[in-house]
Amino acid sequence: ASVSALLAEALVLKLRKQSVAATLRDNSALLTGLLLAVSIPPLAPWWMVVLGTVFAVIIAKQLYGGLGQNPFNPAMIGYVVLLISFPVQMTSWLPPHEIAVNIPGFIDAIQVIFSGHTASGGDMNTLRLGIDGISQATPLDTFKTSV
After folding, report:
1. Mean pLDDT of the region 113-141
2. Taking the C-alpha atoms of 95, 109, 127 and 56 in order, what is their torsion angle to the nearest 10 degrees?
3. Is the CB of residue 5 less than 8 Å from the CB of residue 56?
4. Model confidence at 138, in pLDDT bands (50, 70, 90)?
5. Which residue from 39, 58, 77, 108 could staple onto 118, CB 3.0 to 4.6 Å apart?
6. Other CB atoms within 10 A of residue 121 CB
7. What is the pLDDT of residues 64-121, one digit of tens each?
8. β-bridge partners, 123
9. Mean local confidence (pLDDT), 59-68
10. For 86, phi and psi rounded to 5 degrees?
11. Structure pTM?
12. Are 47 and 39 a contacting pair, CB within 8 Å?
């Protein structure tokens, strides 16, 4: 996310014929990338992170004139765009380790991010399937079915 944010900002600054090095030194693009990265589910595909970051920097930040000119937080604009565009991927969080049936290791997590499957052939649905995923015993489900 950070690399794509820095590259997107450098590209826009070059096109606007502004000083790239001086503007990148304020680290606002880096902060945008980091904020977006921590708000996205951990096993989201890599291209979603790049797409959200590029949108955040180019549209939500630089289109309004750059640092301090944007009315909204660019990282959260990128998050909202991803949430509207890819609702299933953006709401696919892993269950807590205490109730997780399948806890992916580092290599499995990297493989899910880049290919969509673990080394053993499991996918995101397999990793999310836990106790709560089977029973759906949540207060919201109880509220939904009782109304």
Report:
1. 62
2. 60
3. yes
4. low
5. 108
6. 7
7. 887 878 888 999 999 999 999 998 888 877 666 554 556 667 787 777 777 776 776 6
8. 117
9. 83
10. -130, 70
11. 0.66
12. no
Helix (H, G, I), strand (E, B) or coil at 123: strand
Whole-number CA gyration radius for the chain: 19
Q: Nearest CA to 4 among 64, 67, 46, 66? A: 46
Alpha-carbon distances of 111 from 38, 120, 123, 124, rounded to whole Å: 19, 10, 10, 11
Residue 123 to residue 108: CA distance in whole angstroms: 10
Res 70: pLDDT: 85
CB 132 within 8 A of CB 95: yes
Backbone dihedral region for residue 44 (phi beyond 0: left; psi -120 to 50: alpha; all else: beta): beta
Q: Which amino acid belongs to residue 70?
A: N
User: What distance in Å separates the CA atoms of residue 74 and residue 120, rounded to the nearest whole number?
Assistant: 38
| Rounded Cα distance, 85 and 88, in Å | 9
Q: How far apart are CA 124 and CA 109, in angstroms?
A: 10
Phi and psi, residue 14, nearest 5°: -65, -45
3-state secondary structure of 114: helix
Nearest to 13 by CA among 25, 1, 21: 21
